[in-house]
Amino acid sequence: MNKIKVNLENCYGIRKLETEFDFTKTKAYAIYAPNGIMKTSFALTFKDLSDNAATTDRIYKDRKTVRSVVDDSGAPIQPEQVFVVEPYNQDYKSAKISTLLVNKKLKEAYEAIHQAIDEKKEALLKELKATSGLKAGIEEEIAITFAKDPKEFFRALNRLRQEVSEEKPSDLMDVKYPVIFNDQVLVILNDDDFRAKLKEYIEIYDRLISNSTFFQKGI
């Protein structure tokens, strides 16, 4: 199905709307009308279609209503092919479901995938807590450190995947994270005098290494 032809008359305030949505050009369309009710009227009309219910006009109930929604072959769109987002349904808003999949099987598969991802994520965080010694905030810590955003945990993991697979085991791998990164250490690192001395140490170290016959930086 590449195109949907819509012909609506007297549907919840829509006096006349006849158009064709060509999905070979784009995957989504925005519908706008200056009166501000088009979105609601359009959604209610398609909600009726998804519920296999009749559509009427709320004001002029005596007027004949036309609701024709067909595909590019002329076949009517079936109720099970339509999924309407209900923004004011409290249960709907709190549910962790995919809102834009009109096919029930695809939606169930999508939700199953995300549930599996969430389970793997929780298992990983549990292991990381035990390994790192952090009791809380490990997800945000990883996201901020490697993606500069506390909400980008998966992007941080994607960056780390290649780095971890290519790195050799570190001599510090058995050191617990809080031993190095804690409130006391952060206070020291933010001390201007300490930072100046640390900078001086690094500069002297680099100079000695670069002038050495026997040592090489990075080895």
Describe the protein's architecture and organization:
Mean pLDDT is 82; it is low at 88-96. The protein is 46% helix and 9% strand. The longest helix has 29 residues, at 104-132. It has 8 helices and 3 strands. Helix 4 (138-147) crosses helix 5. The chain has 3 domains: 3-89, no CATH class; 104-166; 182-210. Strands 2-1-3 form a 3-stranded antiparallel sheet, with no helix packed on it. With 219 residues, the protein is mostly helical.
- Low-confidence segments, given as residue ranges, are 88-96
Helix content: 40-55%
The major beta sheet can be summarized as: 3 strands, antiparallel
| Terminal-residue CA separation | 61 Å
**Approximate shape:** elongated
Q: Which sequence of strands runs across the widest sheet?
A: 2-1-3
Separate helix tally? 8
Helix and strand composition category: mainly alpha
Quaternary structure type: single chain
Q: Indicate the mean pLDDT.
A: 82
**Could you tell me the number of beta strands?**
3
Write the element-wise H/E pattern from the N-terminal end onward. Answer: EEHEHHHHHHH
Strand % is 5-15%
**Number of structural units classed as domains:** 3
C-alpha Rg, in Å? 30 Å
